[in-house]
Amino acid sequence: MRSNAQFGPVEVxxxxxxxxxxxxxxxxxxxxxxxxLTPDHAPPSVPxxxxxxxxxxxxxxxxxxxxxxxxKGEYTSTEAIAAKEGVSRSFVSRLLRLTLLAPDIVEAILDxxxxxxxxxxxxxGALPLNWDQQRSRFAS
Length: 140
Hints:
The protein is of the alpha+beta class. It has helices at 54-72, 78-85, 89-97, 103-111, 116-124, 131-137, and strands at 10-12, 19-21, 26-30, 33-37.
């Protein structure tokens, strides 16, 4: 299979036995693992490497579960959830905010296509409520 990817200069050793090819790549950390991302300009025949961030998916699922429990009346407040789950009230509030993410951002998280900035913002708890603002802030 032949690729049209743009690589750096090729260097051949003076004896002609060694060739060095420079390939642009980007390293990222997702879910505590280091991964190599392919360049944005790579041709379609070279698939982008994606990795689902298990911690972020777990946080999303937990927030939605707690939201359902609040709606059903199983819990009456974030304090009650925090006491039962053994976490802080602010942690519960941060995860509950994830239920307000735009559907396409949630889909990107589940597919591993979200940008690294999203995880940092989630950990800080700084999520805009407006879906268009979310999309501009977390565009990957």
